[in-house]
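Dear colleagues,

I hope this message finds you well. In preparation for our joint manuscript, I am sending the TerB family tellurite resistance protein (Paracoccus spongiarum) sequence together with its predicted structure, so that both groups work from identical material. I would be grateful if you could confirm receipt.
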Amino acid sequence: MFRNLLSRLFTDDPEPRPLAAQDAEVAIAALLVRVARADDHYEASERQRIDRVLARRRGLTPEEAAERRAAAEMIEAEAPDTVRFTRLIKDRIALEDRTGVIAAMWEVAYADRSRDSDEEQMIRLVSGLLGVPDRDSALMRQRVLEAMGLDDR
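The corresponding structure tokens are as follows:
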């Protein structure tokens, strides 16, 4: 079902069309996977957090969320560099949804309850590429830290 997502993203259509809801979620999940893998340690806590985020965003069962994440892991592995991949997603996902994606990325980055500069740097890059201002990203980060009961250290 998601196998051709990259070809749909990389269409030569001068007017990119929005992605179908499931395709959009897998593309977003692929960005979440990319953030989790940014520090070269893709841990069970990060996979579980991605599953929870996906389930919460679209009301999926745990099994459906895990299936989407598994598809996203394959997409992420084949996706081009982060800049190109993120720009392709930006052109096909509404701005309101993009801000939620940044909050989800902060959740994934702190799923292992530690701070990692590679993951933070990846989120800042993706945030800018998605058109989400630094200030908004920082506010989302703070909310996520508070909700997870973590310090800003």
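For the figure legend, we might mention the following. The longest helix spans residues 21-37. The chain has one domain: 19-147.

With kind regards,
E.M.
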